[in-house]
Structure formats: structure tokens, C-alpha cells
Write a structure and sequence with these properties.
The protein is mainly alpha-helical. It is built from 2 helices and 2 strands, in the order ββαα. Helix 1 packs across helix 2. The longest helix is centred in the C-terminal third of the chain and has 47 residues.
């Protein structure tokens, strides 16, 4: 059985082994970001409950991830509309100036 690469990091005063993401530096940077998030939550809630704060940090991360996904999907929808509009405009120009259709590409 092939074992996935792992990295030992410290988060919230706990040493944990996590799967390697891209490389060791990136993995450690992610661990630092999680650590900072948990520290901020500890300061805001004035509670040092590692498990509770880790759950809050995880929830916050998923909320941010979903917001980014929704933003990305909206960007794709807007880009698709813009490309459709551009395609229509190009077809109208080609028709107006009686331009022949482009030659077929290798994929066609």
C-alpha cells in the first residue's frame, strides 16, 4: 500500500500529521493560517477551548470556500454571457460585410 506524503505541523498547541498539500512550505503556510484563525477566534470569544475553536475555524473556512465558489460561478456566468454577445456581434459583422466563414480548424 502506497502511503500519501505527510507533514508534521503544530496547530492550536497540538502537533498533528497532515497530508502534504503541493509541498512542505505550502502545507506549513496553511497550518499557520489555521493557527492564526483559531487564535483570532480565541481572542474574539475569550474562550480557550481548542475543540470548539477548531470547529468554529472549520465552519468559517467552509463558509468562505462556498462564497468563493459562488463568486467564481457568477464570474463564469458573466463571462459566458459576454462571450455569447461577442460571438453574436462577430456574426453580425461577418454577415454585414459578406465575409466568408473561417476555414475549418484541425479539430473539425
Amino acid at each position: 500500500m502506497i502511503k500519501k506524503p505527510q507533514c508534521r505541523v503544530e496547530i492550536a498547541r497540538m502537533k498533528v500529521v497532515v497530508p502534504l498539500y503541493r509541498d512542505e512550505d505550502t502545507t506549513r503556510e496553511i497550518a499557520r493560517e489555521v493557527e492564526e484563525r483559531i487564535e483570532r477566534i480565541e481572542e474574539e470569544t475569550e474562550v480557550i477551548d481548542t475543540q470548539k475553536n477548531a470547529v468554529l475555524a472549520a465552519f468559517e473556512s467552509v463558509v468562505e470556500q462556498r462564497a468563493l465558489i459562488e463568486e467564481h460561478e457568477e464570474d463564469i456566468r458573466e463571462l459566458t454571457k459576454a462571450l455569447e454577445k461577442l460571438t453574436s456581434q462577430l456574426k453580425a459583422l461577418a454577415k454585414r460585410f459578406h465575409l466568408p466563414p473561417p476555414p475549418p480548424t484541425r479539430d473539425e
